Amino acid sequence: MKQSGHPRKPGKRGKTRSKFKKHGAKVSVNDVMQEFTIGDKVQVVADSSWHSGLPDKSFHGMTGIVAEKRGSGYVIDVMKWNQALRVVTTPPHMRKLK
Questions:
Q1: 11, part of any domain
Q2: Is the residue at 15 inside a domain?
Q3: Total structural domains in the chain?
Q4: What pLDDT sits at residue 90?
C-alpha cells in the first residue's frame, strides 16, 4: 500500500552527510577539557565523532556568546534571523573566536 501525504521526516541527523563530515584531527583531551568564560564569543561546530552534547544540525556554523555554564556543558545565545535562541552543548562542539 502506498503511503499518502508527506513522507516521514529524515530525523535528528538526516541530510547531514556533508555538514558533519570531519575536517582535521580527532577529538583530543584538550578539546574536551577546554574552558570558556561567560561572555566569550564562540562558534557552534558539531563534531560528529563526539556524541555527547551534540547540538542540533540547524545550529551548525552559528556564532554566539556563552551565557552560562551548565554541568559540563555551556549555554550559548545565538541569533537566527530576528529570533534569539539558546543552544546547550559541550566543549568539543565549540570553537573560540578572537
A1: no
A2: no
A3: 1
A4: 97
pTM: 0.86
pLDDT of 50 reads 93
Residue 84 included in any domain = yes
Residue by residue, DSSP assigns 17-68 as TTTT---SPPP-HHHHH----TT-EEEE---TT--TTPPPGGGTT-EEEEEE
Beta-carbon contacts of residue 77 (< 8 Å; ≥ 6 apart): 64, 65, 67, 84, 85, 86
pLDDT above 90 for 74: yes
Quick one: DSSP state of residue 70? Answer: E
Q: Reading across the β-sheet that carries 73-80, which strands appear in turn? A: 83-89, 73-80, 63-70, 41-44, 94-96
Q: What is the CATH number of the domain that holds 89?
A: 2.30.30.70
The boundaries of the domain holding residue 55 are 29-96
